[in-house]
Write a structure and sequence with these properties.
- The complex is a heterodimer of chains A (651) and B (319).
- Chain A is α+β, with helices and mostly antiparallel strands and 651 residues long.
- Chain A has four domains: 158 residues, no CATH class; 153 residues, no CATH class; 129 residues, C8orf32 fold (Roll); 77 residues, no CATH class.
- Chain B has 319 residues and is an alpha/beta fold.
- Chain B has two domains: 212 residues, P-loop containing nucleotide triphosphate hydrolases (Rossmann fold); 97 residues, Orthogonal Bundle (Helicase, Ruva Protein, domain 3).
- Helix content of chain B is 46%, strand content 16%.
- Chain B has 14 helices and eleven strands.
- In chain B, the strands form four sheets. In chain B, strands 2-5-8-1-9 form a five-stranded parallel β-sheet. Chain B has a two-stranded antiparallel ribbon with strand order 3-4. Chain B has a two-stranded antiparallel sheet with strand order 6-7.
- The longest helix of chain B is centred in the C-terminal third of the chain and has 17 residues.
- Classes of the chains: A alpha+beta (651), B alpha/beta (319).
Amino acid sequence: MHPLMLAAAIAFWGWQTGMWIVAAPVAIALVAAWRLPLRWDLAPAQLYRVADFCTVLAVVLGGYLYVTYGNPRAIILLFQWWPLALLPLALAHAYGTSERMDLRVLFWSLRRNPPRRAAGFDPWFPYYVMWLIAASAANVRDEWFYIGLVALASWPLVRIRPGSYRVGAWGIAFSIAVALGYGLQYGLHEAQLWLEAQVPEWLSGAGSRTDPYRSTTDIGHIGALKQSDTIVLRVAAGDGVGPPRLLHRASYNTYAGASWFARSAKFGAVSSSPRPDNWVLEPAGRPSARIVIHDYSVQRNPVLSLPAGTVTVEKLVAKTMKRNPLGAVQIERDPGFFSYEAAYTAGRAVEGAPAAEDLRIARAEHAAFAALASELGLNEMTPGAAVARVRRYFAEGFQYAAFQESAARNASPIVDFVLRSRAGHCEYFATATALLLRAAGIPARYATGFAVLESSTLENAWVVRERHAHSWVRAHVDGAWIEVDTTPPTWAVIEASASGAWTGVLDIVSWMRFRAAQAWNNSSGQTLLSAAFIVVFPFALWIAWRLYRSRRKINNVAPGQPIMTTPWPGADSELYRIEQRMGELGWGRRVHETAGDWLARLRADAPVDCGALAEIVDLHYRYRFDPRGLSGTQRARLRQAGAAWIASKVS
Amino acid sequence: MNDQDITPRVAPQALAARMRANIERVIAGQTQTLEKVLAAFLGSGHVLLEDNPGTGKTTLAKALAKSVGAEFRRVQFTPDLLPSDILGVSVFNPKDQSFHFHAGPIFTQILLADEVNRASPRTQSALLEAMAENQVSIEGKTHVLDDLFFVIATQNPVELRGTYPLPEAQMDRFALRLSLGYVSAETEVEIVSAQERRHPLEAIAPCVDAAEVRWLKQRVKDVRVSDELKHYAVRLARATRSAPSVQLGAGPRASLALTRMAQGLALVQGGDYVKPDHIRDMAVAVLAHRLLLGPQARFSGVTAQDIVVDLLKSIPVPS
């Protein structure tokens, strides 16, 4: 493999990731190995140790990325930095003496059970590919990436192109492959976008996503509603005070086709004062309680989970914060762990004044809900009494069911729920309640968020799992928005009964991740990095020193060194001058090579006349190692042949 | 018989070459191993062949015995083999009311100890005295063995069940440990073709006689070794003692064997003095089996061969 190819791949990586500062020294260090005569002869055990060190490095790197960024970003970043974790091994190989890498370096099983014949491979091509994959993980989606990738991928292919193929035909075939590749990756990308649009819940990992503009419900879907046990929020309430039962994320005002939408809900900026991490939602409000919420978001600009009546959000580092009239609060920051303190006035939701949307019922549901409202006599009651009547209505005749048996025929599923099935999950209850209240002339909104139900003894905090996601109604009664949750309280028990067998273990893992992230956030990243540097740097120095100490030779007998220091006979042999001359040409004898080995190597590779050299080596051997020595004529012959050889080489 | 009356017309190198060519008619594609075995035979060192079944260990031993016209015996080592089964036993003869010694198979010139690690340590150690001192002591009486006495032991490295690994002292008695290894596909085809009608072993005839071998063994001692190379051999052996992850290195017996085997190899390869290449070529076979590795080395998969190869690379070779 040509060293410049590797350098080009590393440069490509630097370009794609923007890490020029890292890429440049790495490329120089690796390419220099082809130029410098410096070589360390590492024993297999030492190479094993370097490989093991790389493994540890990769594991540490993966752990660090996972804790800091979480999946799936950690995986992408790990791919991006992977070749750097293998850099020690690559350097050891580049500055080592063997061309091929022993498979035992990479596989423990082979070390324990060495094969009869050592199997080696050329590691440079895989390493080259690894850099290309790492460059692609930078995910720069422009056409330059594809052009660069095609160029770098075609380079080795051009080099190994079989001579029997004509250049034209080969070029056309290659172009077709490139075009097919581009089409395929484009198609794959489109297919993924389509899939993501179709099944968002398949792809939602740990943490939850909230779209403040739209909430797609499962109303009308047949089958079980299944959500994971993953912990998405941790809530710490003040001493003696329980946490609020509901944490609100977003409200919606328009119901159409089994989805709720937030219409005419433009976001406006929230200002922070007096400190940049202190966000004031309700300047006039007087908080009566406060809670600390630890959140984990997979989406870029997360929506906060806040108790009703939040006055200020404190200790939250974010670029900007904005909210809409429906009470959704969104911040601008990267995915990952973050936490904040919410000061709130219990029992009072802070939202914009009711609008026409908050009373609208779609045609499909209007008749049924209007009839129901008059049947319950809601129109004659005060709003407060009407809300109480609605609560009682749902508490009496309805059941919670996470499993939906059949769909309604010819009727809106929500009408079917109210009139026929009378069993459903929280989305049914919240939607039906909102529509019923609207039919009674009370402005109502569909609210989503989480219910705080579970206190964890492990974490000594309240934990909110993904299956605690909940929806309820915010109704405007007597000039304030109140929360109306009509879902039967048994829902949490029913949901919990479906939790997996591994939940306990996963909780511990989740908690450890959370603690690690907290530790990372508390000590600012800088401190931790410098601490890591303090630990890692001496370790790296120690390893370098160990390697240096155990170095066993510098490849060639350096030109200009004293030719021989031993007191043995034959020190004036002409072969030494030939050796020296060849050393200057890069074909010097290695310290562990006998003159015979050296000759064999020259015979195989070097462009020199080895026939004459064989005679000289033979005479030299006899001169040096035969106690009887050379005869006068033989000594003269050695002298003459050596001189002739050097003369021919010099000319 | 005096040395000088034997073949003064033929150079010892030519005689050794004749032996090699004769054996090569049977053992194909194993020139290097064959040269080393011959070097050990002529240098009075015993050989341990460690290899998979069917690689030609027994054939090699038989071919060597046939080529020199020497007496050849083979003992198959089994767990119930007793020392007396090898050394011999005294039997009471009621006719003359006295004990008569019945010599065991060890009283031969070339002994093939097949699967030597299958016998119990007690039986294995019956070979100790014979191999080190060319004599056996039975019931207080010392019997001197033939001066051609040469042991080729084989063991199978794959199967470990029901075997007794040779103790270090026993290992040290072997001058060389070699493995034949598999030959190339072409050579293997040649072997199959050669044995279509009959085994080539049946065709070979002795090319030297015992007296000539005795003379050759003397000539090995005449192969010249420079002081520098003696130092090199000693330095290699000593380096094994301080090598990392080695518990027990090679003793002075190894330095001696290394020099002697290099002399043998020089003669077999047609030389009359030892070159550094000879010592280097013999080092792994002479030194590796004498090393006792530490647990760390065994865990990390480093073999004794690896260590000797490393030493060869790290110790500057005289040039």
